[in-house]
Structures are given as C-alpha cells and as structure tokens.
Sequence to fold (630 residues):
Amino acid sequence: MKANFMPSEPQIDLSSIKNFIRTELIYDDEKDFDDNTNLIERGIVDSMSLVRLISFIEENCDIQVQDEDIVPENFSSLNKIASFMAGRRKHA
Amino acid sequence: MAFLLHQLLTESAKRNPDGIAVDGGESTLTYSQLDALSNQIAHQLRADGVCNGDRVGVFLPKSPQTVAALLGILKAGAAYVPVDPHSPSSRASYVLGNCSVRALITSSSQLRKLAPDLSAPSEIQSILLTDEAADVPAVASLAGTAPVSLAKIVATHPPTNPAIPLIENDLAYILYTSGSTGQPKGVMISHLNSLTFVNWAHGEYGITQQDRVSSHAPFHFDLSILDLFCTLKAGGTICLVPNDVAAFPVRLAQWISDKAITVWYSVPSALIQLVEHGHLERHNYDRLRWILFAGEVFPIKYLRRLVEQIPHATYSNLYGPTETNVCSYYHVQASDVAPERTEPVPIGKACANTEVFALDEQGRVVPPGQEGELYVRCSTVMKGYWGRPDATAATVLPNPLNRAYADVMYRTGDIVKLMPSGDYQYIGRRDKMVKSRGYRIELGEIETALYAHPGVKEAAVVAVPDERIGARLIAYVVPGGSTLTQSELMKFCSERVLRYMVPEKIELCSQLPRTSTGKIDKTTLENESKLYAERTAN
Fold:
C-alpha cells in the first residue's frame, strides 16, 4: 500500500466567508445568493465592502492579500474567492 | 444661449455630431445618437401623459442609455429623480412615492426587485424599460398598460426634439439626501440652479471638446452634475467608470490611464484608495490635467502623496451642499502640501456669481480669524425640499442684510473659519450630520429605522471619525425581548436605509449610558465605539 505522500488539497472553508458576507455585508439570508452569484453586479462587493471583506479574509484565513490580488477575477463571486484563496495557500 | 440643461446637449450635437458623448466601455453613444435617443424617450414620455413639471424616476445602473434617460426626461419637460440602483426596494419606492413620479425608467431585473413594494397605490402610469420586457411583474397603477422597451421606443418615435416650452425656473431634477427625522428629503434643483453652477465650472476648469471627463459618482449624488453637464456643454466625452473597476484600485489606476482621462472628479476617499493601493507610479497620466474633489475633507497626508505621484495635474477642492450645488472652490498650491502642513486645504472663496459669508451666533458677519456658520446667496440655491415647506423654511432664509426686496440665503450648517487670505476653512458641523465617503448621513435616520423594529426598546447610533472614509457607524441597541439578534437587526436596517448608512456593528446591550439629565450619553458611547474602531482598524 502506497503511503499517502500527496498533500491534500487546501481546504477552503467558504462557509465562514459566506456567513460574513451574509451577516456583515448584505445582512440577508441565502435566497438569491449562491456560490456563483456575481457579487459586483449585485452591488454586494463595492469599494465600501471590499475593504472589510479583505481584512476579514486576512484576519481569519491567514492569507495576505496583495494590491495586485484585489481584482474582480478574485472577488466577483464566492467561487472566485475560493479559487483565489486556494491558490494563495498552495504558494504559501 | 442655453437656459435649460438639455439645450447643452442639443447645441453640442449640432457642433460635434460624431464626437463620442458617453463612453460606457462596452457601448458608446455619439452626440447625434444621444440627442436622437433622448428625443425619442421624451416623445414616449409625452405620449404616456407626462406633462411639464411631472417627476420621472430612473432606477438603473450607469450606462450610456441611463444618460439618455436623464436627458430624455428633461426634454419631456419633467424633472428626473435618480434612485440608487442598489437601494433597498422599500427606500426606492419611498422616494418614487414621495415625489409621486408619473413614469419610471428602469430594466426588467430592476423592476422585479422593486415590484413587491410598488403594489401599494402609486401614481406611476408608465414604465419604460431599457431591455425587452422579460418576466416583468404587473404593476397595479399601470391599469393594464404594458411596459415599453427602448427598442420599441426607437422604432416608434421620431429622433427630433419635441421642443417642450420651459423656463429656467422649472425643475430639472430632485436628489434625495438623508433626513434627520428618519425620511430622506428631496432637494429640488431647477435648470437655473444647475446651469449657474455648470456654466461656472465649465469656464473655471476650461472644459473643451477634447476633454475626457470621468463619471465616478452615481447619478443620485450631486457630484455627477459636473461630470454630465459640463462635459455635454463642452462637447467632450463622459467616461463612465464601470462597477468592476471602481472598487478595485489597481484596475481603476489603469483605467484612468487607458481611457486617457483629462479631468477626474470624485470624493477624496476614492482618491485615497488609489494612493494607497493603486500603484499609480506604473501608469502614464500625462493627459490628466485636473483632479477635482468634493464631498468630504481630504486629509492632507493623502493629498500630498497624490500630488507627489501625479505632480503635473492641478488640484481643486470644490465645496457645497447638494442644496447649493457648489458654492466655493480652492485651487491647491504647492505650499499647501508642504511636508510640515497638517490641516486640510481650505474650501476657498465663492464661485463667480455667488456670495458666501459666515455669521456668528448673533447674526453678525465674522471678521478674519473668527469662526461662524456659512451662508450662501446664489441662483444655485435649491427651490426647496419636495413636500417639506417646514424643512425648506429652516434652511432657506430671508437675507437679514437686505430688507429691500425678496432675497434668500441658504444656511449650510457648516462651521467655517475666515482666514486672513479671504479663504474659508471648514471646521465641522453645527448638527449631528456626518459624512461617509462624501455621502451625508443623519444619525437620526438610522435610529428611526432601528426603532421601527418591534423588538427594539432603545437605540443610539454614533459615528467614529475615520480619516480614510470620513466616518464609521456603530449602533447600540437595548432589546425589548430576548430573541433579537444582531444579524436580524442588520437585515432589518438594510431594508430601510441605504447601504452606506447601515452600521457596521450593532451592539446589543442591557441598557444605554445616561447623562445626569437622563439623556442617552452619546459621549460615553462615542468613546466606547472609538475603542472598537481601533481594534478593528482596516
């Protein structure tokens, strides 16, 4: 039996971020808002909320967000946020 | 000579028909296209029964078509009422109902958002959609009339100007601002009010057909008036900042360079984001000649860094509440950003055709070196607050220095100091109004929203000063029962007030501190919230 040397995929716990967005940014329940919802078009991610979302991610997920990371490709949906964070953890 | 705002477009369309009037990124409109489309929208509104002086709501994200909608409403002889496209539907329908709009220009998806709250009796008799009506809910007041799409409007109506007779005192638009008694107030601005400012700014900043002017502020915010109408007057290009650019400093820095923006106008907080996270040094801003800012204090340390990064541009601070458009301005000098300076730049001197003066508590004009409350006399002063003669009478006052004939002045509520140079320096507010990212916030409006919740026994909202965004809001609530949660209250609040007014934290407590006279002790709460803000500084 082969020893499992493969590092497991970084586990990104989206539920805490989802919960943060729901309770602190849109203050709404899950309806009308899923992992692929475009958060920018919906007005959920804007200059006002982005600063708070980033500091939440930095404080709670042990990820340093660089200025270059702050682009729509990384923050336009929950899935995009998850891929960004997974990428960051691999490089860490 | 134009005496109505939309005549600025008509005249520029004759001079520069093929020039780009609005650059929306994915789509653009030339001057002749914008002129024709707005004429067709005006014909539709008139055909739907819109009359001179009626109000027409606009509930749309920014796009070239939205600009055409604003101009079309003006050409129909009506006043446009722009509503924040992300505002809670209850607030949007409050605004639309408050000034009883006759027609609404929106999109299918925006209408679906609004529909549950429009079921109450409203006076909306026609709905214009920027897209094809898809899955659109029925609106009771339409009495069976289907919303009409822009494509149908273009196919139906001639591109010629309906040429509705109006005078300069007729209303051009109503902008809603936060109200201290809990409901937003509609600031009524006439064509003359707006054009007096537009003509001054057009001349002072020398806007030309070659200019590419940023449109960063939303259309319900009065900074948008310069972007839209000064540019249309000049025959230049209005460049709409896309949503997926505005929030991302690195992208915004690149966009300003790529779009060859020549005149930038925004609240300072947007510029602070660029200075801190935009990496401005990577781009070429040779064409950027004016950086204009307004709406809040620009902390000098950030302004200094911006001037260092973009040294060839000229910087100007514009000042004025929505009720007066802009009434004073100050061009930043090199000495203002000297390393040792700590105070912000002044709000400056009166614009042309404007008088500003500060009065002390006895109503005497203050001498240099003294503080007083700032008053404004100018044809830019609003016609009043919609349906609120009481609120209007509290701020638009007879000028005590002139009793010979009817002459009004606007009481700003801003405390200023008259400097020896003749410039005014902003000191603070007389009342409890605070600003966050240039938006006016009455803490009373938020408290009223919280009190509307049956489980709230007591509520107090305090603002913690924050040099990057102006203010952070913290609420303290005493629940009447035991089941109330912070997230439930957040949701409740967000359904009633605009996004920037929702407190970032609602602290539930068993009681609120009191002063010796039994009032809620806001000073203690402010100190408490400062500690919270320091712990969670971004």
In short: Helices of chain A lie at 14-25, 47-61, 72-75, 78-91. The two ends of chain A are 30 Å apart (CA to CA).
